[in-house]
């Protein structure tokens, strides 16, 4: 791998790091939209939105269509699927952590039940 060029996941994560770009993707998940439509909910100039669109296009997250004079942007799911696959590789690790936490909490509740909980200092403490 050429270390001077960012890998695909890094480029995608960098594009997703900005809340404006995430909002644009959320809008495009509903369907195609023009740059003008994408500008509407933001207090930003069209050139500023266009810069965000270029970042998303470079990351492969959106593409520009062409219908006569209309050039709508649309979502491309491939890079998002790649991120989901990458995160999915770590799923067994966090599930195992949740299972250990669940076991610990269950043991803690059982011990409190067996020994009785007479601590009345915290009225919000579950009984």
Outline the structure in words.
The protein has 127 residues and is mostly helical. The model has no long low-confidence stretch (mean pLDDT 86). The protein folds into two domains: 8-76, Arc Repressor Mutant, subunit A (Orthogonal Bundle), CATH 1.10.10.10; 84-115. The N and C termini lie far apart (57 Å). It has a two-stranded antiparallel ribbon with strand order 1-2. It has helices at 8-16, 19-28, 35-39, 46-58, 78-88, 91-115; strands spanning 62-64, 73-75. Helices cover 57% and strands 5% of the residues. The radius of gyration is 24 Å and the shape is elongated.
Name some characteristics of this structure.
5% strand; Arc Repressor Mutant, subunit A; 2 domains; two-stranded antiparallel ribbon
Number of helices: 6
Examine the coordinates and then state which fold CATH places here, giving the name of the CATH topology of the largest domain.
Arc Repressor Mutant, subunit A
In angstroms, what is the radius of gyration? 24 Å
What gap, in angstroms, lies between the N and C termini? 57 Å
Quickly name the level 1 CATH class of the largest domain: Mainly Alpha
Please identify which CATH superfamily of the largest domain we are dealing with: Winged helix-like DNA-binding domain superfamily/Winged helix DNA-binding domain
Largest sheet: 2 strands, antiparallel
**SSE pattern:** HHHHEEHH
Oligomer: single chain
Strand order of the largest sheet: 1-2
Number of domains: 2
* Helix percent band: 55-70%
| Low-confidence runs of at least 5 consecutive residues | none
CATH architecture of the largest domain: Orthogonal Bundle
Sum up the overall morphology in one term. elongated
- What's the total number of strands? 2
Mean pLDDT over all positions: 86
**How much strand?**
under 5%
Helix and strand content put the structural class at: mainly alpha
């Amino acid at each position: 791998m050429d270390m001077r060029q960012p890998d695909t996941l890094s480029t995608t994560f960098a594009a997703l790091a900005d809340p404006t770009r995430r909002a644009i993707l959320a809008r495009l998940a509903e369907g195609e939209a023009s740059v003008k439509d994408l500008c509407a909910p933001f207090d930003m100039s069209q050139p500023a939105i266009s810069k965000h669109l270029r970042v998303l296009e470079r990351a492969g997250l959106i593409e520009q269509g062409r219908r006569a004079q209309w050039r709508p942007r649309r979502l491309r799911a491939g890079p998002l699927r790649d991120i989901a696959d990458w995160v999915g590789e770590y799923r067994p690790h966090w599930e195992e952590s949740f299972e250990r936490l669940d076991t610990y909490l269950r043991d803690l509740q059982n011990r409190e039940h067996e020994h009785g909980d007479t601590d009345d200092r915290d009225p919000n403490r579950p009984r």
